[in-house]
Amino acid sequence: MNPVVGLDVSKGESQVQAFLDKGQPYGKSFSISHTREGLDTFLHFLKNVESITSKQPPVVLESTGHYQTPITQFLEEQNYLYIVINPLISYQAKKSSLRKVKTDAIDAYHLCELYYKEELQPHKKRGLQLLNLRNLTRQHESLTDLCTQAKLQFHAILDQVFPEFRSVFGDLFSKVSLHILLEFPTSEEVLKARESELTERIAAICISRSNAWAKEKAKKIMDAASRNPFQKVVYESHLISLEMYIRIILQYQEHLSNLEHRIDALASEIEEYKIIQSIPGIGEKIAATIISEIGEIERFNHPKKLVAFAGIDPSVHSSGKFTATINRITKRGSSRLRHALYMAVLCGIRSSRNKKLKEFYDRKRDEGKPFKVTVVACANKLIHWIFTLLKRKETFLDLA
């Protein structure tokens, strides 16, 4: 006998269906909750199937992000083999049926049938260190997006309160700039204060700068306040919003700085981190993202599989005498890895930091290839280099 258990995972619960062998469903499907009691019930069911077939059944489930975590962690603790499949694969398998039925019980049933039709590979457990790094880099990316949104809202409010303040500091979102704006949010409050008071506050916040620099900035703030078109703020709600966004941005900056320190500390313990950083154009942040998204290089036995995992492999469309000439990339892999590779290519070809990559880029452009097509080709080349370096555990030599 060749038993299998199909699991349709959803938020907080899963639907279970077992097969003793191909075409032999075992009992009716049932639901389990993702609690200790529910997991113990599931374990008892697995033991029951094992006692009937004299073989430990593998568990097949779709990838559902974090919803599957309670199940997979429990199966690992109980030493049960499980297979996590791409939802696209199961979706295509379901389309082979003419009947239009969609329930959790049917989905669990189809997962069992798929196990006998396809050669599914068991899930390869990833290292805890790389998973922690992946979680931190993804959290950093999410927090950066939120911070960017807050900055856009801040710009909109500043345009209606103190637009001339932008010309004072080189970096509008520096610590000293935001704190001074928090204390003096309007031109009216700036003009009420003395220039010496502004100088003292700037010097106290930015102690690394000279007093002359602080005095210069204080004068610029006074000039900006006198030029400001809004000498009096009509809407108090704008001031409330401005203060709120300043405090939000400062909090985001603090959290991002903390995350960056933790990412650097964790990544520095990983050998592959230094190997990838040896490629010109790849800095600390991009290197951490790449190694955390790729994981263990042993999961890939060919560079083309890594290319497909990044989603930069070309799609193919051919039917009869027709063969498509415009083939876009599939984008079916890790979007974060794909974005990191894109940024690495841009950094590498800028100012010819990566001589080999710049030479390849120039050659493709001379052939008449569009910019984006050339960048994707460079990303493909780069991922092949990364695969080779990680496999051989060697650093990059830019000898072009």
Structural topology:
Layout: E1 4-10, E2 13-21, E3 24-33, H1 36-53, E4 59-62, H2 69-77, E5 82-85, H3 87-94, H4 104-117, H5 128-158, H6 175-183, H7 187-192, H8 195-205, H9 211-227, H10 236-267, H11 271-277, H12 284-294, H13 303-310, E6 318-319, E7 322-323, H14 335-349, H15 355-366, H16 371-392
Parallel strand pairs: 1-4, 4-5
Antiparallel strand pairs: 1-2, 2-3, 6-7
Helix pairs in contact: 5-10, 5-12, 6-8, 6-10, 8-9, 11-12, 12-14, 13-16, 14-16, 15-16
Describe this structure in words.
- The structure is a single chain.
- By secondary structure, the protein is of the alpha/beta class.
- The protein has three domains: 4-117, ATPase, nucleotide binding domain (Nucleotidyltransferase, domain 5, 2-Layer Sandwich), CATH 3.30.420.40; 132-265, Helix Hairpins; 272-392, no CATH class.
- The chain has helices spanning 36-53, 69-77, 87-94, 104-117, 128-158, 175-183, 187-192, 195-205, 211-227, 236-267, 271-277, 284-294, 303-310, 335-349, 355-366, 371-392; strands at 4-10, 13-21, 24-33, 59-62, 82-85, 318-319, 322-323.
- The strands form two sheets. Strands 3-2-1-4-5 form a five-stranded mixed sheet, sandwiched between helices. Strands 6-7 form a two-stranded antiparallel sheet.
- The termini are far apart.
- It comes from Brevibacillus choshinensis.
